[in-house]
Design brief:
With about 270 residues, the chain is mainly alpha-helical. The protein has a two-stranded antiparallel sheet. Helix 3 packs across helix 6, helix 5 runs antiparallel to helix 6 and helix 5 crosses helix 9. The radius of gyration is 27 Å and the shape is extended.
Length: about 270
């Protein structure tokens, strides 16, 4: 007992207790964090995939982004840390490789130049240089598992000011625009939220959880399917701005017509 008591008073005992406490705290914190979808990353890639991705990058992307993806001035930004999700979003939507210099890269599915396997290889190669957001797992893309009501609330708080309340897009400054979200693949919607392409901010899992991202996808798909269509003409589904323009135009014409009619009747 005296021996145990002596060890307990040893300075090393305090150090051991601190290490154990920190280890326990770190483990508990990690367990309590949101379940971040691992998806496609360089950790899951084979040597063949990485080499294929490197060759694809050198042949199609290095002229703008640099041989080591470190950026090339104004021609192209660094890709270190953008992650597999960003590569998949940009390449699988036809935005990259950029066909010509422009204010903004446009979504064009018909211009996708690579197969799914090649896009995966390119994504994991870029992720191997410096890791970033991964391609999401299928469980976070299933709109049927999401809550459109909560997704609508999250969307109106974080997205509607640029993409319009009905997801049809809108104009931004300096010739840029927020694209329509109608007809966009669920995976690309999720990837846009976690990577923040172009003028869009990044919504990590602390800002919007994976469950809430799935809810947003469910909301957008419900709008796309016409769940909010209550009948009548949709006025292009442009939201309150389009409705107000229509009402203002009709109202002004009605007032002019009434003024002309009353004037003629008085004469």
């Amino acid at each position: 007992m005296r021996s145990l008591a002596a060890r307990r008073r040893s300075p090393l005992a305090l150090l051991v207790l601190i290490v154990l406490a920190l280890s326990f705290t770190g483990t508990a914190y990690a367990a309590m964090q949101a379940n971040v979808p691992p998806g496609t990353s360089s950790e899951e890639a084979t040597e063949e995939q990485l080499e294929e991705g490197r060759q694809l990058f050198l042949g199609n992307c290095a002229s703008c982004h640099g041989a080591n993806a470190q950026g090339n001035g104004e021609a192209g930004p660094s890709l270190h840390g953008v992650g597999a999700a960003s590569v998949d979003f940009q390449v699988a939507t036809g935005r990259m490789p950029l066909p010509s210099p422009d204010v903004q890269a446009e979504r064009n599915i018909s211009q996708v130049q690579f197969s799914d396997e090649e896009i995966t290889a390119l994504a994991v190669y870029i992720d191997s240089l410096a890791p970033g957001p991964d391609v999401p797992e299928e469980q976070w893309l299933d709109a049927s598992e999401g809550d459109p009501s909560n997704g609508g609330a999250v969307y109106r708080t974080n997205c509607a000011m640029c993409h319009n309340s009905s997801g049809t897009g809108g104009a931004l400054t300096r010739g840029k625009y927020a694209p329509t979200l109608m007809g966009v693949d669920e995976q690309h919607i999720y990837e846009a939220m976690v990577t923040g392409p172009q003028s869009m901010p990044v919504f990590n899992d602390q800002n919007i959880t994976p469950e809430e991202k799935r809810d947003v996808i469910a909301f957008l798909k419900s709008v796309e399917e016409g769940a909010n269509d209550q009948g009548g003409h949709t006025l292009g589904s442009l939201g309150p701005a389009g409705d107000a323009l229509f009402a203002w135009t009709i109202g002004i014409l009605a007032f002019i017509g009434a003024a002309v009619w009353l004037g003629r009747k008085a004469a």
